[in-house]
Structures are given as structure tokens and as C-alpha cells.
Amino acid sequence: CDVPGTGESAFPASHDHEGISAALAEGISQISGGATVTLAGFSFGGVCFAHLAAFHPELVRRLVLVATGGLDTPYG
Asked: For the whole model, what pTM was predicted?
């Protein structure tokens, strides 16, 4: 799989954390059938998944972050 806007993936509606998270949430929801998932992200993948979990917690059962830095995640 590709990060939205890279490789063969379509561009997200906006290029901020919320837009990228929305695109990831849509794809993961399609793949999982709406079930919660366990995500593991390394480096930039961890940053993307951290924001996904913050904006769409209903999709995430467990989150494993490895070597992520500077998350700038929203509070709440």
C-alpha cells in the first residue's frame, strides 16, 4: 500500500494530517469491512498512523509506533 498521494494512490482531499488520515481511514475501512484493526507503523508510517488513530479512533484496536519522532498529534 502507498501513502495517499504517492505511488499509485490518489491524492487526499487536503494535504494536512486530517486529509491524509481521512484517506487512510476510508481505505482501511474498505479493507477491514469496518472492523477495528491493529496498526504498526515505522518512522513516517508511525506518524501517519498516530494521526489516523487520533482522528479516527473508532477504526483502531491497537497502535504500535516504532522510531517515530515529532508526531504533532492533536490533543484529546
From this structure: 0.82
d(CA 39, CA 20): 16
Using an 8 Å Cβ cutoff, are 34 and 51 in contact?
no
Give the pairing of strands 60-66 and 37-42: parallel
pLDDT, averaged in runs of 10, over the chain (76 residues): 80 90 93 94 90 95 90 64
Q: How far apart are CA 19 and CA 32, in angstroms?
A: 20
The one-letter amino acid code at 59 reads L
Number of helices (H) and strands (E), helices first, in the chain?
A: 2, 2
Could you give the CA distance from residue 70 to residue 43 in angstroms, rounded to a whole number?
10
